[in-house]
Amino acid sequence: MNYIFSSPSLDDLIRLLKAWRFWMLGAMLGALLGAAVYFVVPPPFRAKATVNVDFNLEEALPTDTDRQHFYYLERESRKLEEIAWSDDLMNQLSSEFGFSVEELRGEKLQLSQPAEAGWHFYADDADPQTADALASAWSTAFVSEVQAQIESGNINEFVKLEATQAKNLPKERSIPLSGYLLAGAVGFLIVAVFAVLFVKPKQLGRR
């Protein structure tokens, strides 16, 4: 027990450096294990829809300062984000696809957006066609709802939206194979470092 909590020594570093062949082989084995997990239990597919958002700062606030522009962007962006996750949109998608609102918000849907330009609507599912349809429906419903809010005066009239990618969406695994390879290799190396440092050479020799 004292050996585990003792300060690292030069001998410990030498032991780690001498085991470079072990590290290389271990990294390869860990990567292979990660690949096996990827193919046996693959991550869900992810589809991405894109909506272009233009706040038209020059027209909305032609004479205001940069600070006012910033607050305008922040305020309108927050409104749009609230609409994207609103109960109305989530209930609509829930009724159409059969997922609960908790599933949609917690694991099925993700939103990634800058303040302006392309807002990306991601949907995850084991079936690529379902992921495609879900992302497409979410982005389309978002555009329709924002347009209605603009007409009612809740969103600035200068905000313009365009669904630039809502059909035949790009689909790929939510986590790439390279992520599994890296996780497997790094995980094995971490375990191996603890084994080399915390198991005494004498203990290894007695075995």
Question: How is the topology of this model organized?
Answer:
Elements: H1 2-5, H2 10-18, H3 20-40, E1 45-54, H4 57-60, H5 66-84, H6 87-97, H7 101-108, E2 109-112, E3 117-125, H8 128-152, E4 160-165, E5 171-173, H9 177-198, H10 201-206
Antiparallel strand pairs: 1-3, 1-4, 1-5, 2-3
Relevant terms:
disordered N terminus, Alpha-Beta Plaits, single chain, 207 residues, 10 helices, disordered C terminus, alpha+beta, 2 domains, 5-stranded antiparallel sheet
Structure, explained:
The protein is an alpha+beta fold. It has 2 domains: 8-41 and 177-206; 45-173, EIF_2_alpha (Alpha-Beta Plaits), CATH 3.30.70.1130. 62% of the residues lie in helices and 15% in strands. It has helices at 2-5, 10-18, 20-40, 57-60, 66-84, 87-97, 101-108, 128-152, 177-198, 201-206, and strands spanning 45-54, 109-112, 117-125, 160-165, 171-173. Strands 1, 2, 3, 4 and 5 form a 5-stranded antiparallel β-sheet that branches. A hairpin with a 4-residue loop joins strand 2 (109-112) and strand 3 (117-125). The protein starts with a helix and ends with a helix. Residues 1-5 and 203-207 have low confidence and may be disordered.
